[in-house]
Amino acid sequence: MTFMEHLPALQVVVPMLSAPLIVLLQPRGLAWAGATAAGLASFAIAIALAMAVLDGQTQVYAMGGWAAPYGIALEVDAFSALVLLLVTGAGAAALLAARVSVDRQIEPERQPLFYAAWLLGLAGLAGIVVSADAFNIFVFMEISSLASYILIAGGPDRRALPAVFKYLIMGTIGATFYLIGVGLIYMMTGTLNLADMQARIGDVVALNPILVAAGFITIGLALKAAVFPLHVWLPNAYTHAPHMVTVFLAACATKVALYVLIRFDSMVFQDRLSDHEFQFTLFALPLAVLGILVASSVAMFEGHLKRLLATSSVAQIGYILLGASFVSEAGITASAMHMFNHALAKGGLFLAVACLAFHFRDLRLSELGGAARRMPLTCAALVVCGLSLIGVPGTAGFISKWLLITAALESGLWGWSLVAVILVSSLMAVVYIWRIVEALYFQQASAEGDTSFAEAPLQLLLVTWAVALLNIFFGLFPHLPLALANGSAALLVGGAP
Amino acid sequence: MIYVFALFLLTLLVITAVAIVRTENLFVAVMLTSIFSLLMAANFFILDAADVALTEAAVGAGVTTVIFLSALALTGDWEKPRPGGRTVALGTVGVLAMLLIYASFDKPRLGDPEAPVHQHVAPWYLEKTPEYMDIPNVVTAILSSFRGYDTLGEVFVVFAACIGVLFILGVKPARQTAAAPQPVSGLRHHLIPQVVGRLLVPFIVLFGLYVQFHGEYGPGGGFQAGAIIATGVILYALLEGEAEALRAVPRSVLLALVVGGALLYGAVGVVCMLKGGAFLDYSVLAADPVFGQQLGILVIEAGVGMAVCGALLSIFHAFAARESMT
Amino acid sequence: MKLLELLGYYNYWVFAVVLTVGLYAVIRKRNLIKKLIGLSIFQSAVFLLYITMDKVEGGTAPIIQKGVPDQVFSNPLPQVLILTAIVVGVSTLALGLAMVVRIKESYGTIEEHEILGAD
Amino acid sequence: MIELALDVVSWVLLAVGGACVLIGGIGGLRLPNFYTRIHAASLTDTMATLLIFVGMMLQSGLSLATLKLFAIMLFLLLTGPTATYALANAALLSGLKPEGDTGQSKHGENTQP
Amino acid sequence: MIPETAILTAICLPLAGALAIAVAGRISPNLREATTLLTAAALIWVVWGLLPTLMAGGRPAVEVSEVMPGLTIAFRVEPLGMLFAALASGLWLINSVYSIGYMRGNKEKNQTRFYVCFALALAATMGVAFAGNLFTLFLFYEVLTLSTYPLVSHKGDEATVRSARVYLGVLLCTSIGLFLPAIIWTYMAAGTGDFVHGGILAGKLEGPAIGLLLGLFVFGIGKAAVMPVHRWLPAAMVAPTPVSALLHAVAVVKAGVFAITKIIVYVFGIDFLFATPSSGWLLYMAAFTIITASLVALRQTNIKRLLAYSTIAQLSYVVMAAATLKPLAEVGAAIHMVAHAFGKITLFFAAGAIYVASKKTEIHQLRGIGRRMPWTMTAFTIGALSMIGVPPTAGFVSKWYILAGAFEAENLVAVFTIIASTVLNAAYFLPILYMAWFEREEAGAKAHGEAPFAAVLALCITALLTLAFFLFNGPVIELESQVVRALPL
To answer: Please, what is the end-to-end C-alpha distance for chain E in angstroms?
Structure first.
């Protein structure tokens, strides 16, 4: 087998096997270097995979040499290639910028463990996206969850611990619900491979274990993806985590759970269960709309900068679910694109917050006075990513807003009211982004704070600005992610092979 | 006839679970959890899941109880009761129970041979194991070869837990209590347990190794062996005191064990790739594919055993060291 | 439904009850260690569900003795899955307990309402 | 003929062993305080184990299983009493005074904490 | 330079200029001023270079990138866009001259940011002018809003921030809330968003939907300040005068009105709208805005607020002219854009000069100022007369065409509104002129001379332009009439 054929396996193996190696690299500088090298390597593999998928061949890899239903198969198609790019990109970028920020927050002797956990998180997420076996997804979901618990528990503030404990409890319940769902399906179909499941579920579809299984899987993954009513763990966890961890997790952790939900729903349940489209829409649509409106309004009145952005993440996840709940090609394209664009926008915003944290111990909006004068470049990057979050034209956010609105209009069932919801929430986004801008630019610096020019370290600033410019680039030339998103929509809903 | 006995054990299981939840003394709750695990192991054995019964006994009853107790030693023994209406919680949970019981009526009856589970993938495994691997224990065959990738993920979950506990407990406790750390207590000055311990520990470790390498023939394998060896060393630490155990198996060795185990497993996979097969495809390891499979299974089981043993021990030492600090 | 028939479903009902007892403990109890105990019960119930699937009437553990001709075996696959799930449960538990110890040190209590009150 | 005799003996042994376990259980329930209760529990550990395992060994005749049974019996006989001893010692250390003890310690040297 | 590259340079030039100004700002103020003027001049040279091709009927177009299938960033120059671009680039040069004088006179702080944002705003204006389809128009429309926000909140104190918040709030809410769905609806209905002579919606929509879509567009484009969405204009008065001049005369407001006219002409199509009954309401809404804005202007005491409300009225002139849907009225709308630009920029320059020279902002303080500041006040008078529409000024020409269009459409409401508003204009401008020239100064007012030379020079140029347009408006009218005459494009 040539090297290219091994790529799906290497995508998971490279970060996973380099994690134990990094634990041995005791001098802390080396640990960061090793982790970044592994991160960049996995990003390169993801790009190679995306290129391969773009010219049409879905990569299937039989693990251990055993054919699909008997062994575990890995499958990389358009949708997984897009999410892979997103996960490894966010991981590599956050790692590149992590050195200075992590040096301030994690003691040197604990850093090798920290970076090893980071790589395990990356490997876990990549493992979920690449895998085509239901139980294998559970195992890698556990790896990525454990890694993210460890990363968040590294937070300097004592409040990180109860926050991550609540996340652990809810995450484990979510994963176990998913396990029950998979168990029930396995009981009725006798197989664990997703494609095989889709083929065999036809004849047992009317029985109620399958319906209950669908319920359990959807609730479990909704819990992991922090969909609206089950999102209570997200704001605290992201607020008290170390800054660079928030960048990494906010960009891709919840999206992978949504990826599994969409893949499971459209491949396994969709055309098989009688009126399942209606059920999924009946379940997902109200939750998404509620999530968008409530989370945006809460974000508008939030005082702490990081918690504000974390709450707005819940709203943006609502958008992705809204796109998926249309169960149409346009809908899936919109939600896939928004996964990509939100990762860019939110990753950039949290990177800027990490820069701010260098000179502002307390990140409450009332304490950020005079930030623009002291750190003009960081604030500019923050404004650019904020605009992308709102969806101003010319930025990546606008593309996904445009697709979402067209999908809403095409969905027919009172499409216009959904358009109204999307626009109202964009205006709410304008309000809370502008609260930040006004706090940074116009608030007078607090009395004792010095106003000398003091920018964030160069390495962190460069990555922040790179992400900000990417936001604009993908706003004007979104061909790559768009091609992948369209491919995934055709695959999932269009019934293409 | 066996069903009646199963019926009795399952009912006992439910009673233990309810007792655990109701009791307010955490120490009692932990002991009941240990009994709960033992009952689960018994149930598994009745349902013909020998490997799982051994794992549940070794990992569930043994190590979990030890970790719980060491955590209890650092936190309080008593739980504050929570007055007030429990209707909401009962309500939601009740709905879930109704849903599950409603769903259970279309499920195949216990032991029904025509159930879809036994039709599709399982017969292939039972038929192909003697042909490809020629080892009696089909569970180990699936665990290590057919679904070896799952077990690789599994080893890295254990690895993650190990580095997680080391990372979280790596922080020095905020307030050093004024009292000098009291002498390393264990049952140091009690002669009888020490004598019996010294007699037993070697046999426990020997039995662990037996389970490790006997994995292909009977119930056993990496996880169970790692847990048993870890329990043996923990028993030694309890009897002789934690410092003594650290002298016997120092922390660097433990870390080497965990990292070594995980890397060994990964290395076998990568070697398979280099030799031209897919990742974790052992048949390319040796000229004769069947021998290659057996070699692969043996090596990765050793890797799993090392990783699990190292991880569980370093977790125990992280908790125990914490005790002497506060 | 005759008694033996009913007996066949008893395992699933025990699974349902133990699952709900675990979930109740996690939701209701405020002591963090009791929550973790509830979580481990919750996960053990799922193991019971999987292993109930693998039993075949009159079958034995899936260990193929050489000489014996046509043996009936139980299904090995759920056992493999549960081997993995048990170790996942223990790992999550170990991590949770490490957090509880750290919370006890920084907050002085492991009752959830007191912790939330402290901030 | 020999098999019949062996079966009868092993049945008797198993029955008596079962009775011992039952008595131990009832003792554990009815006896008032901690120390008397572990006394009853230790009965199950020692006597019942011996009887049941010899009974089972007789059932399985000369085979690998008998050897395994013997090893398990040996293990149980060793650890059972030690565990009970350790339990009692720990209870005493944590200050649970046995019933009717008027303060002065009648036990040997190793009760000082 | 061939037309296609001319379009792209017209947009990139101000961007490069902004960068150059930012760099020059660090070195020395004079270098920064020189770069600004140089960029402005270069822009005029590029944009006005396109005029001959346009006059000959050519429509250069270039496509930059295809964002999504059917959604492209493309530019296409047609008469309306050409006029607006020429106007904006011309006035930018004059405005730069004026703002150098004003900024130096007033010793304002962080001027570099001011000029950089100015250049960015101009780049966005060029983008709006040359936009080839609705998506590109919306893209640069938003960039214009965002680039003018730092200008409006220039001072940075509490009052400015609050009014800047109103400015941004109204503009962003209307654009995201109404303009974006309108664009998407058009793309959905017509399949494309390109500006095509004769409109793309003909036959695609029927009945009330057309009126609704038109309403979404008109109220979506907040910059045109039609009545309910006009609140941001008076709020933007806190900005320094050159910015108000930019807002009112050069770019922002013009972009709004230009966008509405372009959408009416190129998206709906004049005859298609004229045929549908449901679009009549636009004319009545514009008329209502004119009347109420003029009435409110009557009661204003602050000069700049008065000019703001008069701008709202004048803008609705253009909207009303466009809404009468007759060829002559469309030409009148285009010309009124130019006339109003010249007149209003003169008035703002005068108000700024008065403020710099004497710190006076209220009307009653202007008694006898004519003697003290003769040049400024003559320019102010010419501007005021142009607003009213007295013959020698540009205002008369455009009102003439709009009236002709109204008569042609037999639209009595339009005719009556124009006459009434002319009377109202006179009612609030003439007292100021009378006070300035014929009344005595109250005793004890401190003496002050003319405004700085650069400011006065700019003033006089724009005043002369207002007069000159009355005489030499031939080429402009000919250019605009191409829009309506069924010219083969």
So the answer is: 22
Q: How many domains does chain A have?
A: 1
Q: CB of B265 within 8 Å of any CB in chain C?
A: no
Residue A393: which of E65, E138, E173 has the nearest Cβ? E138
**For E16-55, what is each residue's pLDDT tens digit?**
988 988 888 888 888 888 888 898 899 888 888 888 888 8
3-state secondary structure of A459: helix
- What is the token pair recorded at E464? 């002369």
Using CA coordinates, name the residue in chain D closest to B190: D110
Give tens-digit pLDDT for D66-103. 998 999 999 889 888 888 888 888 888 777 777 665 54
Q: How many residues does chain C have?
A: 119
**Can you list the alpha helix ranges (DSSP code H) found in E439-473?**
453-471
Angle, CA of E246, E249 and E253, to the nearest 5°: 85
b/e A290-321 (16+ beta carbons within 10 angstroms → b):
ebbbbbbbbbbebebbbbbbbbbbbbbbbbbb
Establish whether chain E is in contact with chain A, requiring a minimum of 3 CB pairs below 8 angstroms. Answer: yes
* Other beta carbons within 10 Å of E210: 21
Residues B211 and B305 in one domain: yes
Q: At what angle do helices A78-105 and A479-492 cross, to 10 degrees?
A: 130
CA distance E176 to chain A (A): 7
Neighboring chains of B (3 or more beta-carbon pairs < 8 A): A, C, D
Distance CA E361, CA E344 (A): 17
Q: In whole angstroms, what is the distance from residue D97 CA to residue D94 CA?
A: 9
Tokens 């649970």 map to which residue? Answer: D96
**Positions in chain E whose pLDDT score sits under 50:** 487-489
Residue A334 CB-density burial (10 A; 0-12 exposed, 13-18 middle, 19+ buried): buried
Q: What is the pLDDT of residues E338-347, one digit of tens each?
A: 888 888 888 8
| The two three-digit tokens of residue E121, written as one number | 């705003």
E219 in Cβ contact with E226 (< 8 Å): yes
pTM of the predicted model as reported, rounded to 2 decimal places: 0.88
Alpha helices, DSSP H only, in C29-75?
A: 32-54
User: Are E225 and E312 within 8 A, CB to CB?
Assistant: yes
Range of the domain at B297: 146-173+186-326
Among B7, B74, B318, select the one facing C104 at the smallest CB separation: B74
Chain E residue nearest residue A431, CA to CA? E169
Asked if the model's pLDDT at residue C67 lies above 90, the reply is no
Helix axes E79-106, E29-49, angle to 10 degrees: 170
Q: Tell me the domain boundaries of chain E.
A: 1-269, 280-489
Residue B116: list chain A partners with CB under 8 A: 187-190, 200, 204
SS3 A364: strand
Task: Select from 3.90.228.20, 2.30.29.30, 1.10.10.60, 1.10.287.3510 the CATH code of C3-56+75-118.
Answer: 1.10.287.3510
In order, the DSSP letters of B167-181 are: HHTTSPPSS--SSPP
